TrEMBL record:
This is EAL domain-containing protein. Residues 26-278 form the EAL domain. The chain holds residues 337 to 625 of 626 of the full protein. It comes from the Bacteria. Signal peptide: none annotated.
Length: 289
């Protein structure tokens, strides 16, 4: 009777407090993120990608927040709050512009054949991506295939008809399109076949299991065969071991990204790494003599 009521109320008060403090934290975080954008506390790191002959073929731009007290934060700490608050729109615009600016610096050094991959959030894709990319291309100019936009399956499934149309428009502007974390979502092959897509990014959970989980291996093989059939490129994400790379390469995987080959790094470190790699031309061959 009365006791149960009291207990119930106490429980709900405790719950309420917890909820308030969670909401309060989120609010503070969003305020901090607003300031971070104004104060330019965000930066990009870049992770090189390699083809089956070990040549660099691209790089993915990954956002970081240089927090004044907490140090360098990864997207897991703030991307959701950006998405919920709409801040991901100005942040995403900034990321796109910075990524393109850095691609041009690569191009100046003779590495213009590398792609620049940029992660796109659901809200950004729905709201402003076509416009943002259009503006960038008009303003800065960009050869076909220099910019690759990484979309997730859930982003595409949210609104299939519009997704296809937006992707067509992006392709027409010269941006290529990849599905990120492929294999973790629910998109069907029949659906994918009708989208203007260039590449699948095989999710790291499958790559991690190569050599130890036959089910994951079967999925990897099937994805690779399917991609070949559809004329799509496949890049394996999260490659951490040689046996993973060898296994995937033997089954026709085109490209590789992971700590084994390169960690995400500041742009200057990437340039340094490229400068020392074979095939660089004058500087590279001189360094090898
Ligand atoms: P993602 O696009 O799947 O990026 C790959 C993530 O895997 C990166 O984490 C990268 O550092 C990490 N990674 C790379 N190689 C390895 C490896 O060999 N082993 C392991 N365990 N991990 C590896 P990061 O930088 O923390 O980014 C996490 C996610 O945050 C990204 O996943 C992407 O979905 C999102 N993200 C990153 N930058 C942006 C951005 O500018 N905008 C948006 N909307 N999302 C972003
Ligand atoms: Mg990505
Ligand atoms: Mg991924
Ligand atoms: Mg991922």
């Amino acid at each position: 009777g009365a006791q149960a009521k009291r207990l119930g109320r106490n429980r709900s008060v405790g719950y309420r407090r917890q909820f308030d403090s969670h909401a309060g934290n989120r609010l503070r975080l969003v305020q901090e993120l607003h300031r971070a954008l104004e104060r330019e506390e965000f930066e990009l790191v870049f992770q090189l990608q390699f083809d089956a002959d070990d040549r660099p073929c691209g790089t993915e731009a990954l956002v970081r927040w240089r927090h004044p007290r907490r140090g360098l934060l990864g997207p897991a700490e703030f991307i959701d709050a950006c998405e919920d608050s709409g801040l991901v729109l100005p942040l995403g615009r900034w990321v796109l512009r910075e990524a393109v600016r850095h691609w041009r610096r690569l191009d100046e050094r003779g590495w213009g054949a590398l792609r620049m991959g940029v992660n796109i959030s659901a809200l950004q894709f729905q709201e402003s991506l076509v416009e943002d990319v259009g503006q960038l291309v008009a303003e800065l100019g960009l050869p076909r295939g220099a910019l690759e936009l990484e979309l997730t399956e859930s982003v595409l499934l949210a609104n299939p008809v519009d997704a296809g149309r937006a992707m067509g428009a992006l392709n027409a502007m010269g941006a290529s399109l990849a599905i990120d974390d492929f294999g973790t979502g629910y998109s069907s092959l029949a659906y994918l076949m009708h989208l203007p897509l260039q590449r699948l990014k095989l999710d790291q959970t499958f790559v991690r299991d190569v050599g130890r989980n036959p089910d994951s291996e079967a999925i990897c093989s099937a994805i690779l065969r399917m991609a070949q059939g559809l004329g799509l490129g496949v890049i394996a994400e999260g490659v951490e071991a040689w046996h993973q790379l060898d296994w995937l390469r033997q089954r026709g995987c085109d490209e590789f990204q992971g700590y084994l080959l390169a960690r995400p790094a500041a742009f200057d470190a990437v340039l340094e790494r490229l400068g020392a790699s074979p095939g660089r031309g004058v500087v590279g061959s001189a360094a090898r003599l």
